[in-house]
Design a protein that fits this description.
The protein has 1 helix and 13 strands. With 189 residues, it is mainly beta. The chain has 2 domains: 19-76, SH3 type barrels (Roll); 91-188, no CATH class. Strand 1 and strand 2 form a beta hairpin. The longest helix has 6 residues, at 19-24. The radius of gyration is 16 Å and the shape is globular. 33% of the residues are buried.
Length: 189
């Protein structure tokens, strides 16, 4: 299990099916941490907001664990389903990872994806290093890349999985064998 903190999916709690997120995805993200709201994150983890700490919602998750989420990755735990198998909407997506612990979170910019039709390119830190390449999205929302995703796919790094979320995508990767995984979260500009 991942030991770091990801802005989009988090590391606390057991990852569940994205079905709960799919149902909530059409709803607007929460603007703040309203105590008592039952919410779902992009990984489908549901829980009740219990307070706010340093701008993050403190939560009691339905699986009995506790943790934190940024309010903009939470939705009310009801709503219309989203087609996770659909291609990502055309445009530029800003990507970052988070590092540190709950008391000292640092956001590290990683670059940007450009999507046009069924093609993409990843621009590490905004630099154009590769041409557009094809990609596809499976019925479960997993993404298959037809080209590079910057240095994330270059040895010793390896991409573990890529998947669509409500307003963007996540790319889980290892920087080297035996390292903890990280999740790069990407959302439209």
């Amino acid at each position: 299990m991942k030991t770091g903190l990801s802005i989009a999916t988090g590391a606390i709690g057991v990852l569940m099916s994205a079905a709960a997120w799919s149902l909530a995805a059409a709803a607007q993200p929460l603007a703040n941490c309203d105590v008592g709201v039952h919410a779902v994150d992009e990984a489908g983890i549901t829980g009740t907001i219990t307070g706010v700490d340093a701008g993050m919602c403190t939560m009691d998750f339905d699986d009995g664990t506790q943790g934190f989420r940024m309010p903009y990755v939470l939705r009310p735990a009801d709503g219309a389903p989203v087609d996770l198998a659909a291609p990502l909407p055309d445009g530029t997506y800003d990507c970052a990872i988070s590092a540190g612990d709950f008391s000292n979170i640092n956001i590290q910019p990683m670059g940007q994806f450009d999507f046009a039709g069924a093609t993409y390119r990843f621009r590490p830190l905004g630099n154009v290093t590769d041409d557009f390449a094809p990609y596809s999205v499976a019925a479960d929302g997993s993404i298959s890349w037809g080209g590079r995703v910057g240095a994330l796919a270059d040895a010793p790094s390896v991409i573990l999985r890529s998947y669509r979320v409500n307003e963007g995508l996540n790319v889980e990767f290892l920087t080297q064998p035996g390292a903890d995984s990280d999740t790069m979260s990407c959302h439209p500009l």
